[in-house]
Structures are given as structure tokens and as C-alpha cells.
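Late entry, evening session. Most of the bench is empty. Finally got around to the prediction I had been postponing all week. Sequence below, unchanged from the version circulated by S.P.
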Amino acid sequence: MFLGAALFNAIGISFVEQIIENKAFVFFASSLVFALGVELTDVRDGLTQGIRTVALTLLSWLLPVAVLLAAAFLITLPFAGLSQLSSSLSPAGLMLAASAGLIILINTVYQDGEQHLSGSPVLRMIMRVGCVLLLPMTAFALWAVSVRIGQYGLTVERIVAVVSAVIGLLYSLGYAAAQLPRRARAGGWLPTLELTNVVVGAITALTLVAFSTPWLNPVQLSISSQIARLKDPNLQADDVPYYWLANNAGPRGRAALDSLAASPNAAIAERAKQARENSTFNRRGPAKGFIVFPEGTTPPEGFIRDGLCFVDTCPARIVDFDNDGEGEVLLRHGPSFAVFKRDSSGQWAEIGTLENAPSCKHSPLSGEEMDSSDLKPLPPKSVPSFEIAGKTFEFTAKLDCPITEN
């Protein structure tokens, strides 16, 4: 399509390119082509039967490895402590990903339920073990996500995680029930597993549709949950998602920040005001270990506050950056410095950055070198900047680096 659009562009007709780059067309066309491809492989299964058989056979032999790792993890988990699972969302996400992988591999062994296609008897036995292991895997993941939600409320990521955990638990319950002895019936050798795939697949599709409605939209649910948490009288300053309320929660979040700015808790009120006035607030962490170089220098009054640092230790320098007789603060962030200056109201505000200019030395300075070495001002550049159509252009000299032999 892009080749066709390029042909039309060559004769001055651009609407074809505009159509195929439109998001609505991209989503519609991609979904339609994918659906037609799936339908074609179903109607004309002979076209893909060979490659499908090879792929499923190869993938099925990954199941023993996955089952072994899952069993080892579940055996080790009680000794490591369940508290590790709820320390963040990552362990639960990894367990859900492992459970999804197990579900896929189980179905590569089962295929359509015909015993002659379902691998060797050993593979079928391992598949049964995997079906049972799914239950504790998804149950622990659901518990871990539930603990996080109880502590910190809903977010979009936690809503997706808890729904994924519930769907995984439904799969695991159906797969575990499929291992119970039953009377022989027509169809595959584990008919409950087949029924589980269909029913839970339909539930998953309905859940995705529900997410698109105003009532069960994850963004709106998370906003309502986080705003409800703000009414807790025991709320601590570090528990409030200031940046998220200011930038991701829409008008309701900004209204909540306005109310927090009037909170009797001075720490909450101050950080809410900063988040409301500074769109980048809280991307950095709380103020912790400030170190001003040369060591022993006292930080300027009113400079140290939350929302300044990316890391636990915050190296800074005090330099008269613009020769106005007053010291500015250079706060190091990795390989560069953020420059802070007092504004007309006496508040410290970030006015720009000081970055390493291109040079022939490719090795970057270490943090220790940047903190302890002398800061020497250089004479101003002799070449002025230029303005063209309202845009500023600055001259950068070409580097004439010597060629070194390895």
C-alpha cells in the first residue's frame, strides 16, 4: 500500500497516503486482514497443516522444561517467603506471564484432542502435571496483585494485572478439573479442557469489550480509586501519586490536587502545590542525601525540597553561572547538570541544563570526576547564534579528531 501511495505521490496525488496513514484505517485494515487470514487457515487447513504440525511438535517439547521450572519455583516459594511476591507488581506479572506460557504449551501438546496427535504418553503425563501446577501459580499471582491493590489502590496496570490473574485462574480451574476421571465421551481425551478454552476465551473477549465502556474503563476506575484513597485520614505524604494526579488523571485529578494543596498536612500541601505548578514534578524522587561540592559547602536556603533527585545521593555545586553576583546551583543528573536559579519571588526554579559538548574523547567522565574536579569558565564563543524564521541556529564546530591505531 505504501508503494502504491508513493506512486500516487509522484503524480501529485497525496490523499492515498493520507488514508493509509490514518489510525482508523490502520486498525480496520489490520483487523480485517488478520481475520481473513485466520478464516483462510480454517477453511483451507491444508495450506498450513504441514508447518503447523512441525511448529506444534517443536513447541510441545518445551513443556517439560516449563513444567520443571514452575514446579521448582513453587517448591522454593515457601522458603523464600510470600512477602516477596507482593513487594511490587513485577513478581505477579512474571508469574502471570509464566502461566500464560504454560497454557500455550499445554495446548501445543493437546492440539485437537486426538491422542495420536497429542505427543507421546510421557508428554501427555507432563501436560497433566502442568495443568495442576497452573492453579497455585495463578492463585499466588492473584493474591499478590490483590495485596498491592489493598495497599495502594487501583491503577491501570493493576486492573489489567488483576483481570489477567482472574482469567488465568479460570483457565487453571478448568484445566485442573479436566484431570478428574470421567466417562468416555465423543471428542478429545480431555473434553473439559476444550470447554474451558471456549468459555474462558469468550469471557476474555467480553472483558475487553467491557473495558471500552465508560463504566468499566480502567482509566476511570483507577482515577476513582486513587481519589477515594485521598480521603484516608492516615494518608502519608509519600503515598500520594502527585505526578499521576497532575498529568494522567484529567480534570478530576487536578481538582484533587487543588484540595490537597489546602490540606492541613504541610508536607502533602507543599508537594501538591509543586505538582500542580510543575508538570515534571515527582518524576524525581524525594529529597534525600544532598552533597554540595566542594564538600562542607552549605546548600542555599530553600533549595532542598522533594522532587529534585533521580537517585539517593544528589551531588550539587554552587556557581555564579551568569555572572550576576549571585550563586546558581548545578545539580548533577548523570552526565549533565540541571541549572537552578532564584526567580523574582525568591523561589528556586530550573532554568536549563549544562551538558558535555562533543569532543574527540569518547569516554564519558565518571561521577567522581564531575563532582571533585574544578569548574573553570571558558571565554564566550566568538561565533554568534542566528535566527531564521523565528528559529535559533547555533554553530557547532566540526571535530578534527586524530586517527588512532588499534
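Two things to note before I forget:
The CA atoms of residues 383 and 395 lie 7 Å apart.
The two ends are 48 Å apart (CA to CA).
Will write this up properly tomorrow.
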